[in-house]
From TrEMBL:
Organism from which the protein derives: Turicimonas muris
All residue ranges annotated as the Semialdehyde dehydrogenase NAD-binding domain in the record: 5-143
SUPFAM superfamilies: Glyceraldehyde-3-phosphate dehydrogenase-like, C-terminal domain, NAD(P)-binding Rossmann-fold domains
Catalytic activity of the protein: N-acetyl-L-glutamate 5-semialdehyde + phosphate + NADP(+) = N-acetyl-L-glutamyl 5-phosphate + NADPH + H(+)
Key word Nucleotide-binding present: no
Pathway: Amino-acid biosynthesis; L-arginine biosynthesis; N(2)-acetyl-L-ornithine from L-glutamate: step 3/4
A GO cellular-component term linked to this record: cytoplasm
Annotated NCBIfam families: argC
Descriptive protein name: N-acetyl-gamma-glutamyl-phosphate reductase
UniProt KW keywords: Amino-acid biosynthesis, Arginine biosynthesis, Cytoplasm, NADP, Oxidoreductase
Length: 352
């Protein structure tokens, strides 16, 4: 079988190393080049000894890397990089999978507001597809550019998808006038691989805090997709927190139900909706998901609770670097090239 020639732009960060870990185990992928402006000339195994014997590559400057010879290029870069290179790559038939936010938000003014930069290729943005397999699979298949879902958004969207789909279908399941509350926590790696005081071990260990309470740039992305699921504008209160762990996202979602909603069997609804989704596990009634249940894997695990007749509590866990980022991007690559979605992604979560 012909190998998929893969390029990675921005390979020195956590999502880049996670792409390498996953793609080196992928039977149909051949990593042709990996770039890093700051580490150009450095052997990958010297920076990441965990890949010794598995990756025989040297970081290249993006200007010198043979990206146009690839079938697909992943961007594990800061916001703004992918859109500066997407036009040239797509004109040469190269598919683009962006792990940053350049192609997530359809409204360029919203993008400018939250990311403090102009969108430089709005024409490509119009054709780009939001990269979330469980919700956008059919549209993703023929896309040239995918803007992959963020880590927090993935947990919240998959946590609410069956509920909001039912609301759109039969109406009046959720009290949309009452804001949905997403209380979400992320491991420190979600902030990226950078030198910052608030991410130092002495600052983040043995500590727990909220951030972005006044507004977080994942909020418009989440609302954009939830509103599409529901068929109407969804009101959301999203509060992120920083966990003193390396990996993992835990979202606890609170939804006010209508009288009609209180009549529904949500356990059955979720089990049926995700029955054929290989990476979404609806846990049995009474189960409590933990972040270690998904560590290092591409799985999302969901549990449902009815605390009161009109209050549904949804618990969602994922690994922010895998299903929340690089793993989901590899899943997207599988879709683009007609492979089984599970290819190269069946790693079992690490325990303990």
């Amino acid at each position: 079988m012909k190998k998929i020639k893969v390029g990675i732009v921005g390979g020195s960060g956590y999502t880049g190393i996670e792409l390498l870990r996953l793609l080196t185990q992928h039977p149909s992928a051949e990593i042709v080049t990996i770039t890093s402006r700051g580490e150009a000339g450095t052997r990958v195994e010297d920076m990441y000894p965990s890949l010794r014997g598995r990756v025989d590559l040297v970081f290249q400057d993006p200007k010198e890397a043979p990206l146009k010879e690839c079938d697909v290029v992943f961007f594990a870069t800061p916001h703004g990089v992918a859109m500066s290179m997407a036009e040239e790559l797509t004109q040469n038939g190269v598919k683009v999978i962006d792990l940053a936010a350049d192609f997530r938000l359809k409204d360029t003014e919203e993008f400018k507001k939250w990311y403090k930069m102009e969108h430089t290729c709005p024409d490509i943005l119009k054709k780009a597809v939001y990269g979330q397999p469980e919700t956008m699979r059919d549209k993703m298949k023929d896309a040239m550019v995918l803007g992959m879902a963020g880590c927090y958004p993935t947990s919240i969207q998959l946590g609410l998808l069956p509920l909001l789909e039912l609301h759109k279908k039969v109406g009046n399941i959720v009290d949309i006038k009452q804001t949905i509350i997403a209380d979400s926590k992320s491991g420190i790696s979600g902030a990226g691989r950078k030198a910052a005081v608030n991410l130092l071990c002495a600052e983040a260990t043995d500590n727990f805090k909220a951030y972005g309470v006044g507004g977080h740039r994942h909020s418009p992305e989440i609302v954009q997709q939830l509103s599409e699921f529901a068929g109407e504008k969804v009101s959301l209160t999203f509060i992120p927190h920083l966990l003193p762990t390396i990996r993992g996202i835990f979202s606890t979602i609170y939804v006010q139900l209508t009288e009609k909603g209180m009549e529904q069997d949500f356990q059955k609804l979720y089990e049926q909706r995700y029955a054929n989704e290989p990476f979404v596990d609806v846990m049995s009634k009474g189960a409590l998901p933990e972040t270690r249940m998904v560590r290092g894997s591409n799985y999302v695990r969901i549990a449902l609770y009815r605390k009161e007749p009109n209050l549904l509590v949804i618990l969602v866990v994922e690994d922010n670097l895998v299903k929340g980022s690089s793993g989901q991007a590899v899943q997207a690559m599988n879709i683009l090239f007609g492979l089984p979605e599970t290819t190269g992604l069946e790693q079992i979560a690490l325990a303990p």
